[in-house]
Amino acid sequence: MTRARLHIVNDLFTPTSVTETVDYRVLLPTDWDAAERLPLVLHLHGAMSSSASLELAAPHYEELYQRGEFPRSIVACASTPTVGGFYLNRPTGDSWESLIGEEFPEHLAATFGRAEATALIGASMGGYGALKAAFADPQRYAAVAAISPAVFPGEHPDEVPASNIPSVLGDLHRAMSHGTGEASVYLANSVHGRARAHADDIREASLPVLIDCGAADEFGLHEGADYLHRVLDELAIDHEFRLVEGAGHLGPAAESRTKEAIRFIGTALATR
Fold it and tell me: What pTM, to 2 d.p., does this model score?
């Protein structure tokens, strides 16, 4: 058996942007040296999950790292809630977007050294959070990969079909406008809206973007992913779009799709 060259550490930190102590996991080389500056990959987990999702993805990072297809990096995942979270800043509550995009990376910099580059990868809820953050500040990120991102086939609250907002997706749909239904607030928290607002910056940054979704997604997220693909085409924003025939939200193809998304991030970091 090949000896693991990456390992996970688990810790807690107390931020100011949210009112609770946050659990997080970090995957890093076993021979990491405190003087070494490495890229940071923010691994954003999906709904009803936690930083433990990094444990599930770790074998993919390990395999690609050992094959030379993923560079020495700090990969970090913070536990964020679905209800009341979803990588959103709440006007009367916690600021989870600020936590992930600002306070968590600063905490990691203080612990593991300031990153020489930062990339984002996320699935489902995490895909929404990753794309939203990357499109808002494209010069800051080396790449973004979103697997089955929680995006909708519409850009205003009343354009999204009811069939596309079941369960927690309905909670997200309402929370994006802070429960007001106001289009401007909704757009500000929308991946589509941020792509439109920052299109010039995204093009100038030449941000590597991957959007991957199963064509048989049980929550209809393939319709939102295809809509986003068309918006990015309209805006002349270069991106890679993969619609995987027969694949659902999870299922047998999920492992290989996750590995390919990690490979995409690894390639972007290695060639930046």
Answer: 0.97
